[in-house]
Design a protein that fits this description.
This protein has a six-stranded mixed sheet with strand order 3-6-7-8-9-10, sandwiched between helices. It has one domain: tt1808, chain A (Alpha-Beta Complex), CATH 3.90.1570. Strand 1 and strand 2 form a beta hairpin. The protein is built from three helices and twelve strands. The protein is of the alpha+beta class.
Length: 191
Amino acid sequence: MHVTSERRRATYEDLCKVPDHLVAEIIDGELFTSPRPALPHALASSMIGFALIGTFGGPPEGSTAPGGWWILDEPELHFGEDVLVPDLAGWRRERLPAIPDAAALALPPDWACEIVSRSTGALDRGRKMQVYARERVGHLWIVDPGPRTLEVYRLEAGRWLVASTHAGSVEVRAEPFDVVDLDMTRWWREP
């Protein structure tokens, strides 16, 4: 006789019981918690958000001009039973004309950004990337403040392709925001 034990699937109620000082996500029925980001992580996220909101956060200015995006810090995303919290995410205003009065969004973003750390890197690069691909998120950035790197991924035919990689303190043009130069120098703490 073969006996299997079924693992209980995590619910949103389980996620709500997680203390506020932790980030909680549910992927494939499993609850993941991680500590709030360390300061180099928070700096990178804040500076990327600042640069993008300042340039792209306004109303659309035409087909080739910046603008036309909603950029949010740590939005809660509900994709079926999965609940993800990217460090940053962006929606083109043509897909999301207004921010709803809600705690979470079910509409997948056009762009997501994960700032990796030792405690989140495997999850960000593995299971979360798979969910983003399944939900057809068009672009994903993986930022690592340790080695000061940016990996830009573009989704094509359901698979992630590396669009570009960047390292150090340089100016970059990174999809989908490649109409302007972004100065990575401001993303990192001083050496």
